[in-house]
Design brief:
Lipocalin, 44% strand, 3 helices, 233 residues, alpha+beta
């Protein structure tokens, strides 16, 4: 009887491990559609001035051909400290600004197609898609800006601006407030370029890192970066 119970337990354990392995190793879902920028919503003190404000603003759209999003976190792989980097160029968003009057500048919704994030390891890519981010159900990571702080009153071409953007970051089904530190510059009247960064804890977003042989001490903090070029649309 004891042998039978032990045998059944081993079979159940094997089935469970096989199920986990299959879910991790299965091919991740492909992007469902081409990523398009959500229009930035321009606000004005009154309805009467809304059209006037909108008319003075230039809408800059992030160009995925020249932009990248990446995450970085540290782990110990086979006893050696390693920095894991995942990246994608599938990012979209719009920025509304008048360089002569930055008081009404606003950043729109930033969208990242999580299904396209890749690292230098295919097994890790599948674990990232299937077990960590669950991109089959949650295709997009989004950042909804709520406030732009620290901008000067105006900017000239070539000037480097340092400021912050507060907003709500959504990963899977968890949304938390974060602040991005931004360094950006008007390259020309029709082009902006810069980078933004923030640090989050993956556990805060209810993300679970699978236990994998040879991997230890996965850092809780994840650094997020957006390197962007935005062009007047």
């Amino acid at each position: 009887m004891a042998r039978r119970i032990l045998w059944m337990a081993m079979v159940l354990l094997l089935l469970a491990l096989t199920s986990v392995a299959c879910s991790v190793l299965s091919e991740p879902a492909a992007p469902s559609e081409e990523l398009e920028a959500a229009p930035v919503e321009v606000e004005a003190p009154t309805e009467e001035t809304a059209s006037e404000v909108a008319g003075e603003l230039t809408i800059y759209q992030i160009d995925p051909a020249e932009s990248h999003v990446r995450f970085e976190l540290d782990e110990v792989l086979r006893g050696s400290p390693t920095t894991v980097v995942g990246s994608t160029d599938q990012v979209s968003g719009e920025i509304a600004a008048d360089l002569d009057d930055l008081s009404s500048a606003k950043a729109g919704l930033i969208q990242i197609n999580a299904r396209t994030l890749v690292t230098d390891n295919n097994f890790r890519n599948r674990a990232l898609n299937n077990k960590i981010l669950n991109t089959g159900d949650y295709e997009f990571i989004t950042f909804e800006p709520t406030a732009v702080k620290g901008l000067p009153s105006s900017a000239t071409v070539g000037e480097v601006l340092e400021f912050t953007i507060d907003g709500d970051l959504t990963i899977r089904d968890v949304t938390l407030p974060v602040t991005f530190a931004v360094s950006a510059s008007p390259v020309s009247e029709t082009q902006l370029a810069g980078s933004a960064s923030t640090t989050v804890n993956w556990a805060d977003f209810d993300l679970n890192i699978p236990s994998v042989q040879n991997v230890a001490d996965v850092e809780e903090e994840v650094e997020l970066y957006i390197d962007f070029v935005a062009k007047a649309s």
